[in-house]
Every structure is written in structure tokens, then in C-alpha cells.
Amino acid sequence: MEVILAKQAGFCFGVKRATHLAFEAADKKGETYTLGPIIHSPQVVQRLEEMGVKVLGDVNDADSGTIIIRSHGVAAEELEAAVSKNLEIVDATCPFVKKAQEHVESLSLAGYDVVVVGDADHPEVQGIVSYATGRVYVVGSGEEAAKLPRMAKIGVVAQTTQSFENLKDVVYACLAKGGEIRVYHTICDATAVRQEEAKALASKVDCMIVIGGFNSANTKRLAEVCSELLPRTHHIETASQLDSSWFVGVEKVGVTAGASTPKWLIDEVLDRIAEIDREKIG
Ligand code: SF4
């Protein structure tokens, strides 16, 4: 079988940075915590746990030690609580998420009502919203934005994983709502690039393997876009979940991985596919 690995498979810049900072902090020993899982990869979280890093649901559960802030950030109050408790802070918030938080704060301080384009339930959005000091609205689409009240000054930012089209739809709807609009393009293209590449790959192979946490929204989306083009798409977290029956009659296999999937998991999957191929020949 020919196995083709997508060029952008696996860690994006922000997740690579956060993971590096987390393992560096874990190496220093001492009490170390993350607020929620550091990234959406149960295997990375487990490795950190084996090194003594505990996952906390609430900053108030730590009285001392080091706290690592996850890649998609936390709410301003949680960060303030960590500072007031004198915890050592390793801020692994992705710089792109940080930028969105900073824009919300500065827009609010400048008197703008803020519109955040994104999923209100997502922790990244909850973190971004928490930096507003005035009125703030979260909208998921242009239709939702059309229902907003009229505002004198509107500031728009987007969750980093939103599509450019959706941001455009919301901005268009906001044009009918206010006299002055300031828009910050806070979308990171890591997700879109992975999806485009995965689609191109799925259209030229017989079977697609998508690796990443079952709790990772970007991996699930990758698997969905591939499945739409190629029903023989399988979403797995680890090599042990590969099933040799998936490769019967297959000549070309495409492999991709979500932005929170570490290289070691990808390598294990590639090794196992090679093994299955040898068993087929044997
Ligand atoms: S997807 Fe983009 S914004 Fe999110 S962590 Fe990765 S680089 Fe940062």
C-alpha cells in the first residue's frame, strides 16, 4: 500500500508551544497543574499526569505550585485568582488567542460594544468574552447577528477557529446595526489549512485515517470533511484502534491528524499500517 501523510498533520504552532511549555514545567517537578486539559489529546494529558501534572477544574483547588494556562486560554477572573494566590503561572495561551482577548479588552475600554463570532459554549470564547468590560455579545452566525440591538460603536472579533465566511456574514449583519464598526481579523488559518489538505488527500486515496482526540473538535471536523468525500474514513486516537479489515483491497491510504495530535501518535499509526501491509503480503 502507498501511505500518504498530509504535510500539515498534527500539532499547530499554538499547541506545539503549549505542549513544550507544559513538559518543560513538568520536568522541573514540584506541584504542577493545568486548568482543564492542556490540549484536546487524552494521550498527551495522560503523559503529563504520569509526570505528576494534575488537571484542575477550578483554580481554587490549588494553594501553591505552578499552574499552566492551556492553549485556548482561560477567563480573566481565573488568571486573576491564580495571581492572587501567588501561584507560579506558565501562560501557554496561544498568542493568536491572546490577541483576540486583548482586542476585546481594548475595544471595551474604548467604548465599543463587542461582538464575538464563535461558539458561546467553547472555553476559548468564554475566555475571550471575559476580557470585555462593557457590553459583549456572542453570535454564531450572520442570522444571529441580525437579531442584535442597534449600537453606536461595534467592535467585532472572532474565535480563532471560525471560518472567514462566517466572520464576513456577521460583519455584514453588523453594518445594519451601528454607525461605527471596527473589525479585527482574529481567525487562525491552521484549522482551514488542515481541512483543505485533508480534502485533497481524501479525494485521491482509497481509505483515510484521521488521528486525534475524540474530544477534539478540529479532529472531528477533519474526519467529517473526509467522510463526506470518502466513506472509508476512520477516526482513531491510537494505533491500537486500527483494524486490518479496513485495508482490504486498498492501494492508497491517506493519513492526517488534528492540530492537537502529537507526532509520536502519528508515527505509531504509520508503523502499525506498515505492519498490516506486511501481514497482507505475507
Ligand atoms: S489552532 Fe491556531 S489559534 Fe488555535 S492553538 Fe493552534 S495556532 Fe493557536
From TrEMBL:
Broadest EC class assigned to this enzyme: oxidoreductase
Cofactor note: Binds 1 [4Fe-4S] cluster per subunit.
Pathways involved: Isoprenoid biosynthesis; isopentenyl diphosphate biosynthesis via DXP pathway; isopentenyl diphosphate from 1-deoxy-D-xylulose 5-phosphate: step 6/6; Isoprenoid biosynthesis; dimethylallyl diphosphate biosynthesis; dimethylallyl diphosphate from (2E)-4-hydroxy-3-methylbutenyl diphosphate: step 1/1
Cofactors required: [4Fe-4S] cluster
A biological process from GO: isopentenyl diphosphate biosynthetic process, methylerythritol 4-phosphate pathway
Binding site for dimethylallyl diphosphate: H40, H72, H122, S216, N218, S260
Binding positions for isopentenyl diphosphate per the UniProt entry: H40, H72, H122, S216, N218, S260
Enzyme Commission designation: 1.17.7.4
Family annotation (Pfam families): LYTB
A GO molecular-function annotation: 4 iron, 4 sulfur cluster binding
InterPro entries linked to this entry: LytB/IspH (IPR003451)
Binding site for [4Fe-4S] cluster: C12, C94, C188
Stretches that traverse the bilayer: none
Active site, UniProt feature: E124 (proton donor)
Reaction(s) catalysed (UniProt annotation): isopentenyl diphosphate + 2 oxidized [2Fe-2S]-[ferredoxin] + H2O = (2E)-4-hydroxy-3-methylbut-2-enyl diphosphate + 2 reduced [2Fe-2S]-[ferredoxin] + 2 H(+); dimethylallyl diphosphate + 2 oxidized [2Fe-2S]-[ferredoxin] + H2O = (2E)-4-hydroxy-3-methylbut-2-enyl diphosphate + 2 reduced [2Fe-2S]-[ferredoxin] + 2 H(+)
Keywords assigned by UniProt, alphabetized: 4Fe-4S, Iron, Iron-sulfur, Isoprene biosynthesis, Metal-binding, Oxidoreductase
Binding site for (2E)-4-hydroxy-3-methylbut-2-enyl diphosphate: H40, H72, H122, T160, S216, N218, S260
Function: Catalyzes the conversion of 1-hydroxy-2-methyl-2-(E)-butenyl 4-diphosphate (HMBPP) into a mixture of isopentenyl diphosphate (IPP) and dimethylallyl diphosphate (DMAPP). Acts in the terminal step of the DOXP/MEP pathway for isoprenoid precursor biosynthesis.
Family under the similarity heading: Belongs to the IspH family.
Protein name as annotated: 4-hydroxy-3-methylbut-2-enyl diphosphate reductase
Protein encoded by which gene: ispH
